[in-house]
Write a structure and sequence with these properties.
Structural class: alpha/beta
Number of helices: 13
CATH topology of the largest domain: Rossmann fold
Mean pLDDT: 96
Low-confidence stretches: none
CATH class of the largest domain: Alpha Beta
CATH architecture of the largest domain: 3-Layer(aba) Sandwich
Largest sheet: 8 strands, mixed
Radius of gyration: 21 Å
Length: 368
């Protein structure tokens, strides 16, 4: 199989879809890998390193897409990349199609077999390819929030830890999954007054054990959300429904009642966001204000730490990429139910229930 690794073009997206070790593994198995010139530089990987691992360096994305049977990326294709996609091609990347109707329509029209990292799901409900980026995003969320709480960044001028004689900042995290757990780890470690809200008592129980009762865990309800969000200095949206749009748990009215200069970091923004006032932002223009509240809604947060993120992502994507390359996408999915759940589009069919509901497009079985 011919595998293509293009350079990411999303705003300040410095990750790359594969590291040299992955190239070496695939080429050792007899596959060809084309890497776009300069694709790894943002992650500290040179073209020479890719060449030494067995890759061919392509001068442009057009060449990469034109040669590749399977394109391996980090983020969803943008409008400029739509014309490069071709009939029967496999696209293996983060997709987040519930918030990307235009891309979904293109993938269907071009008969692309698209497999989304974020919807590959094991029987136990875990999301193995999303997990490392959720870990990064959760940890970054507190770091970013602490930065924008500074008065010179538009925030309340609050130090997360406080100091002796001055109370710590109140950090409220909605969602106790991977993002929420990692955000809580950093917030608690920085000395913040940390509250985690979730609908699952089991997840909250695990959080309570993890932190030995040193953070506040609460079962989600309208009353609890309004009470604690209203008093938050930093709110982190960490809600995830695999493949689907995130539910809007914090309404505009509640945002207006938050403290002036409070900060919202909506990590759920890839799936539409869990705060009504959230809208996608970029690393080059990351924040905006609504009713005096700072909103940070960058859709590719892990791109800010590309070296860490690229290597962590390849650790989990490579085994699936190898399987697809070795036996083809259909047989790979037939043999692996988790990978099958990652299938979003196939031969003009939308094959993900949650995406179909979100976009109001007909769901169809893959038919193989």
């Amino acid at each position: 199989m011919v595998i293509g690794v293009p350079k990411e073009i999303k705003d300040q997206e410095f990750r790359v879809g594969m590291v040299p070790a992955g190239v070496m593994e695939l080429t050792h198995l007899g596959h060809q890998v084309y890497v776009e010139k300069g694709a790894g530089l943002g992650s500290g990987i040179t073209d020479t390193e890719f060449l030494d691992a067995g890759a061919k360096i392509a001068p442009s994305a057009k060449v990469v897409y034109g040669k590749a049977d399977m394109v391996i990326k980090v983020k969803e294709p943008l409008h400029a990349e739509f014309p490069l996609l071709r009939d029967g091609q496999v696209l293996f990347t983060f997709l987040h199609l519930a918030a990307e109707k235009a891309l979904t329509i293109e993938l269907l029209a071009r008969n692309v077999t698209s497999i989304g990292y974020e919807t590959i799901q094991r029987e136990d409900g875990s999301l193995p390819l999303l997990m490392p980026m959720s870990q990064v995003a959760g940890r970054l969320a507190v770091q970013v929030g602490a930065n924008f709480l500074q008065e010179n960044k538009g925030g309340r001028g609050v130090l997360l830890s406080g100091v002796p004689g001055v109370e710590a900042a109140k950090v409220v995290i909605i969602g106790a999954g991977t993002v929420g757990a990692n955000a809580a780890k950093i917030a608690h470690g920085m000395g913040a007054d940390t509250t985690v809200i979730d609908i699952s008592v089991d997840r909250l129980d695990r959080m309570d054990d993890l932190f030995q009762g040193k953070i506040r865990t609460l079962v989600s309800s309208r009353h609890i959300v309004e009470e604690y969000v209203g008093g938050a200095d930093l709110l982190i949206g960490a809600v995830l429904v695999p493949g689907a749009m995130a539910p809007k748990l914090v309404g505009r009215g509640l945002v207006s009642r938050m403290k002036k200069g409070a900060v919202i970091v909506d990590v759920a923004i890839d799936q539409g966001g869990c705060v009504e006032t959230s809208r996608p932002t970029s690393h080059s223009d990351p924040v905006y204000m609504v009713d005096g509240v700072v909103h940070y809604c960058v859709t590719n947060m892990p791109g800010a730490v590309p070296r860490t993120s690229t290597f962590a992502l390849t650790n989990v994507t490579l085994p699936y990429a190898v399987r697809i390359a070795q036996v083809g996408p259909v047989d790979a999915m037939k043999s692996d139910p988790a990978l099958m759940k990652g299938l979003n589009t196939y031969r003009g069919r939308l094959t993900n229930h949650a995406v179909a509901r979100a976009l109001r497009i007909k769901y169809e079985e893959a038919g193989f």
